[in-house]
Specification:
This protein is of the alpha/beta class. The chain folds into two domains: 188 residues, 3-Layer(aba) Sandwich (Rossmann fold), CATH 3.40.50.2000; 153 residues, Glycogen Phosphorylase B (Rossmann fold). Helix content is 48%, strand content 14%. It is built from 17 helices and 13 strands. A seven-stranded parallel β-sheet has the order 3-2-1-4-5-6-7, with helices on both faces. A six-stranded parallel β-sheet has the order 10-9-8-11-12-13, with helices on both faces. Strand 6, helix 6 and strand 7 form a beta-alpha-beta unit. The longest helix is centred in the first third of the chain and has 19 residues. The radius of gyration is 20 Å and the shape is globular. It binds uridine-5'-diphosphate. The site of uridine-5'-diphosphate has 16 residues, from helix 1, helix 13 and helix 14.
């Protein structure tokens, strides 16, 4: 049987992590051949190369260098490049992940060339059209042939939008697959936690881990100030470790807040996946505006405060694992951090059985070969 060709388009940190699970299954399938395109959206070694190395992924076949600029400029340049690659490769399907500009550019370039699109992490909605991610995910879902949903809620959103059942494939969350595989590899000894213990006196179970990277946090000075002030005050009660996303670092530096923050908190560079998992697993609390980190907190049984007005992962709020703290006012955010410390949610299993990647590959193989 001649293997069918899949072009995968990725470009941002969470996409490398999600793709690692699916790419491994594609390589094992024997029925499908994968050609990976990296758009270059994330390009720092600690935002990109580290994940390929740690998660055992091959170097992408195509490495573009597209980042920065406005959303339109970035997405437009990606469309231009991806279209050329698709015309040269003539794939049987294009695979995209999540909700970034790379996702939308990959989906749109393929759809216009009549190449069927598979969207992993389809159906998520924040119902907030001010988020660039919400626009990207709605448009990507609209043009995709296969909608691989991570949760029942995501599948229900698509059904409500009138998507035909035959396009919706509830498979579970590929991030859960990755967490099951790699989470088990990290203990509390050595690694980043070991170094932070030696250098800064951080110990397992006695720190809060924070991440902030979304435009809705970084592009609004008052919202960012509410987050920074709340974390600074919280750090007087429990150490706060914050791996700083490059965009957040740049905004804080421009606002002249970085030096004072470095005194109050434990600021570190963005972490590789295994160091990040280690810090997540052993945190007393996680405070984040990240989608992936909210779920990983739950995978490792750590309470989470989401520094946003809403979340796509409602089931974690309902089960008591996660609490929303809209970053409007520092005192309210601080109260949410304090209230969440030491809490545990209800036992739930909303993200499938940890076999989402193999289910995706089986579905694509059977439909493309059939
Ligand atoms: N992550 C990481 N190092 C960090 C921060 C996050 O490896 O310093 C991982 C995290 O464990 C999760 C993913 O990156 O798997 C989440 O990505 P991000 O927060 O950038 O995007 P989102 O999930 O919000 O789309």
């Amino acid at each position: 049987m001649h293997p069918k060709k899949i072009v995968t388009v990725i470009g941002a940190r969470p996409q490398f992590i999600k793709a690692s699970a699916v790419s491994a299954c594609l390589a094992d399938s024997g029925q499908l051949r994968e050609v990976v395109v990296h758009t270059g959206q994330h390009f720092d070694p600690n935002m990109s190369a580290v994940f390929f190395a740690e998660l055992g992924m091959d170097k992408p076949a195509y490495q573009c260098d597209i980042h920065g600029g406005g959303h339109g400029e970035m997405t437009g340049r990606m469309l231009n490049e991806i279209e050329k690659i698709l015309l040269a490769e003539r794939p049987d399907a294009v695979l995209v992940y999540g909700d970034t500009n790379s996702t939308l550019a990959g989906a749109l370039a393929a759809a216009k060339l009549q190449v069927p699109v598979a969207h992993v992490e389809a159906g998520l909605r924040s119902f907030n059209m001010a988020m660039p991610e919400e626009i990207n995910r709605i448009l990507t879902d609209r043009v995709s042939r296969w909608l691989f949903t991570p949760t029942d809620g995501a599948a229900a959103h698509l059904a409500r939008e009138g998507v035909d059942d035959s396009r919706i494939h509830p498979v579970g969350d590929v991030m859960f697959d990755v967490a099951l595989h790699h989470g088990a590899r990290t203990g509390s000894d050595g690694g980043m936690l070991g170094s932070l213990g030696n250098q800064r006196g951080i110990s397992a179970g006695r720190y809060c881990l924070a991440t902030v990277h979304r435009a809705e946090s970084t592009d609004h000075p008052q919202r960012l100030a509410a987050i920074v002030d709340a974390l600074t005050r919280f750090a007087r009660e429990i150490p706060v470790v914050w791996p700083l996303h490059p965009r957040t670092r740049a905004v804080l530096a421009r606002a002249g807040r970085l030096n004072a923050l470095a005194q109050a908190l434990v600021l570190v560079e963005p972490l590789g996946y295994l160091d990040m998992v280690q810090l997540e697993k052993h945190a007393a609390l996680i405070a984040t505006d990240s989608g992936g980190v909210q779920k990983e907190a739950f995978f490792y049984g750590v309470p989470c405060v989401t520094l946003r007005d809403e979340t796509e992962w409602r089931e974690l709020i309902e089960a008591g694992w996660n609490r929303l703290a809209p970053p409007v006012e520092a005192t309210a955010v601080l109260a949410a951090l304090r209230a969440s410390l030491g809490t545990q949610g209800r036992k739930i299993a909303p993200y499938g059985a940890g076999d989402a990647a193999s289910r995706i590959v089986r579905r694509l193989a059977s439909e493309l070969q059939g």
